[in-house]
Amino acid sequence: MDGEALLQVKNISKSFGGVKAVMDVNLSLFKGEILGIIGPNGSGKTTLVNLITGFVRPDSGEVLFKGKKITGIQPHKIANLGLTRTFQIMRPYHSLSAFKNLIVPLNSPRVRRSRGGRLGDRDAVAIDILEEIGFQRDAYVPYKTASSLPLGYLKRLELARCIAMGPEIIICDEIFSGLSMAEIATMVPVLEKLEMEGVTIMMIEHRLRELFRLVNRVIVMNFGEKLAEGIPEEVMKKQDVRKAYLGTEVDNVGG
Amino acid sequence: MVIEETRRKRLDRGIKVRTETLYALSTWREMAYLIVPRTVLILGLLLLPLILDMYWQRVLCTAGIYAILALAFDFLAAYVGLVCLGGALFIGAGGYISGLLNAYLGWPPLLCIPIATLAGAVISTFVLLPCLRLRGIYFAIVSFMFPLFAVHIIVALNVFGGTEGISALAILPNIWVEQYLILGMIIVSLFAIRRLVNEDIGLILRGIKDNDQAVRASGISITAYKTKAVFIASLMGCFGGAYLSHLYGWLGISLFAMDFSILPIAACVMGGMGSLVGPVLGAFILTPMSEALRGFGQLRVVLYCLILIGFIVYKPEGLMNYLQRKYHQFEYWERV
């Protein structure tokens, strides 16, 4: 199965000063799957995303995308390969209206190349993407300034920024956090649709119940190390996972 | 007892549709609403030389240089997020190149100025390139250093006229060419930049200001775009410098004077950051005011500062942002 992996992380480590944020982590991401990454706060999940997408350089280890090494490459070049990410802390381009936010990824070399150098009507493309992801065009939501959008729309905008790139992989960093059950319920179909279109998704999440409905496989991290890996139900039965992630006293968890 | 309370209500005029670039105009009234402010600005600038006497005409030329610098500063600060104190670098680079071409090769000013604008901008951008990774105040400090460097290099090596400078350069044909050259350039740059910030490249630059990490995650090299922005700003600054050396027919180390880095900021504070036209007007108010206050001797600086502090305290948004708000919105008192 190793040969088919779209993305491979090999023995990657990173410390900040004395803090070992990520230690010797291995993982593979296969084409078309949704992989969940869970773990308590500070367990190195976001650092792992930063390492994969080139925002932080690893101390050791490497990341392979389609068998090619991408460690040490600048983030924008990695994004242009089709490996995109959302940010946990959303800061949209707040002075621009929502659809103008997407003009930035639509100008990337990757999109230019896929359109044969001609960009065409970017505004229309941007609005179409937003509408598909749940911005009601009739209510003029795509035209509102990003700074005036509520949290749910900001999360969608983050995802839309990735979708606009025409990506192969989207890494979602806590895309459900802070959302109501109803808002999550409308986000789930968007992710499922992406999966059906063949986009590979890696989700970092604290909302386990919602996550477990989506993912095929889950990886648990604790103190920068990979603690367990497997299908959600089995992983959550493991004693050390419960102890690390949920505390010892909990006896009924997960989806 | 009945207390009547009122509150102020603001309503946008329905001229703009959805975005900054789309307008729905149906009547002459609405068209006039958009055209009049622009016409007043252009005609105002173009008619200004006709009503001034010789002395104030010279002041106008100097004010024009500060205006173009202020525009460049505002563009970088409000639309790219680079606080650039390199105004003196731009003026110095443009001024020295243009002056030297004229002094050593004998080329006429109207040929030297465009060459110096382009060459100066390339050099300034190249010099600032390593610091583009810095943000905010750090970039400001480093960009502030380069003019000081340049002065020390020129003095230490005693090149390009050393401390004395080079005088008796060719000057522009007459006072009318001098005035309309700078005024024309200001109008062209102003409208070009206003257009640019709403084009794709402008949107990306504004994206870099708001969140550069997201721009990188969108597959766009922020260094490449910042370089383009700095190049555009230095084009404006270097033109100002080249023009200045032929305005006085002289080049020297005072082309790297701190005034060129600092006064544009004051003009931006007064005129309103991010409005682009504000800083231009700010420069056209501040420079003559500084001249008019010359009679107060040393007190001039104090008065100057008081006016600035007044603006910062009472109208922090600046003149133009205030006026634009008043112009684009209805305001009325509503009974609660």
Runs of chain A in which pLDDT lies below 50 for 5 or more consecutive residues are none
CATH topology of chain A: Rossmann fold
In whole angstroms, the N-to-C terminal distance of chain B is 16 Å
Q: Beta-sheet strand percentage of chain A?
A: 15-25%
Q: What is the straight-line distance between the termini of chain A?
A: 27 Å
Total E-strand runs of chain B = 4
General form of chain A: globular
What is the general shape of chain B? globular
Low-confidence stretches of chain B: none
Helix/strand/pairing category of chain A: alpha/beta
Element string of chain A (H = helix, E = strand): EEEHEEHEHHHHHEHEHEEHH
Strand order of the largest sheet of chain A: 6-7-8-3-9-10
- How would a crystallographer describe the biggest sheet of chain B? 2 strands, antiparallel
CATH topology of chain B: ABC transporter involved in vitamin B12 uptake, BtuC
- Into which percent range does the helicity of residues of chain A fall? 25-40%
Determine the CATH superfamily of chain A: P-loop containing nucleotide triphosphate hydrolases
Quote the beta fraction of chain B: 5-15%
Radius of gyration of chain A: 18 Å
Q: What is the topology?
A:
The complex is a heterodimer of chains A (255) and B (336).
Chain A (H helix, E strand, L loop, with lengths): L4 E12 L2 E12 L3 E5 L6 H8 L7 E6 L2 E2 L5 H7 L1 E3 L12 H4 L1 H4 L2 H6 L7 H11 L18 H13 L5 E5 L7 H16 L3 E5 L3 H7 L2 E6 L2 E6 L1 H6 L1 H8 L9
Parallel strand pairs in A: 3-8, 3-9, 6-7, 7-8
Antiparallel strand pairs in A: 1-2, 1-4, 4-5, 9-10
Chain B lengths: L5 E7 L15 H24 L2 H26 L7 H19 L3 H20 L7 H22 L8 E2 L7 H22 L3 H11 L1 H6 L4 H27 L1 E2 L7 H13 L5 H16 L6 H16 L4 H10 E7 L1
Antiparallel strand pairs in B: 1-4, 2-3
Helix pairs in contact in B: 1-6, 2-6, 2-9, 2-10, 2-11, 3-4, 3-5, 3-9, 3-10, 4-9, 7-9, 10-11
